[in-house]
Amino acid sequence: MIIKAKKSLGQNFLKDKNVLKKIADKSLLNNSAELIEIGPGTGNLTDYLIKKNPKKVFLIEKDEELSKYLKNKFFDKIKVINKDILKFFDYEIFNKNTIVIGNLPYNISSQILVKFILDNNFKYKALIFMFQKEMADRILAEVNSKNYGRLSILSNWKFDIKKLFDIKPSSFEPKPKVESSLLFFSEKVDKINLKNPKSLELITRILFNQKRKKIRKSINNIFKKNNKIISDLNLNLDLRPQNLDLKTYCNIASKYDSEKIS
Prior knowledge:
- The protein is α/β, with parallel strands linked by helices.
- Helix content is 35%, strand content 18%.
- A 7-stranded mixed sheet has the order 4-3-2-5-6-9-7. Strands 1-8 form a two-stranded antiparallel sheet.
- Helix 1 crosses helix 2, helix 4 packs across helix 6 and helix 7 packs across helix 10.
């Protein structure tokens, strides 16, 4: 059966055997770990991951045709869940021994990552996700750099992140126009406590919508020009969004929650 990648679903199937083996070797999978693979495609990577003998294997695949193909290919070795990960809330299959792996569709990769950042009902040991290299660079970016933005702040609030390696376009079918990067995420044990992480997402979205402008107008809008609250934050309002570090963004989000700004 010939399966063709669907452009509408952002599918690029990983085919390079050396890369597939390399990912499996970095996966931390063993007989006590459980695997959830997001967007397994034709199961090329799944083949290598199963060889690591995980306790359970769940494949979350939105494409109905691919879901049927995967069930026929792996039979009782795996459970295929024909769902859109962005609309998936079956937390039962996630636990502290779960390794979540995904060659994420480029067009929704940031949305998938943000879902795992903001939804505390997902339990796992680690996330191993593939992104366009440009997106990975944004996730890893540090304050005052050109790539620093919403994803940098949200990701680094929740996770310790490590780049494992880059992957050439020739490793995929069809071949994308850009390089990819594989990132390893483990939840921070000492992350800054936030009452409502969604407030951090909101604050970063508002500020980075005006990323080239000073933060004065955005901060005034967020806090309804309440000078007392803004003064308490002790911000330099002449700075731009990329000049504020993670701790400062968390302080703004915490202040927003405590003052119940609506």
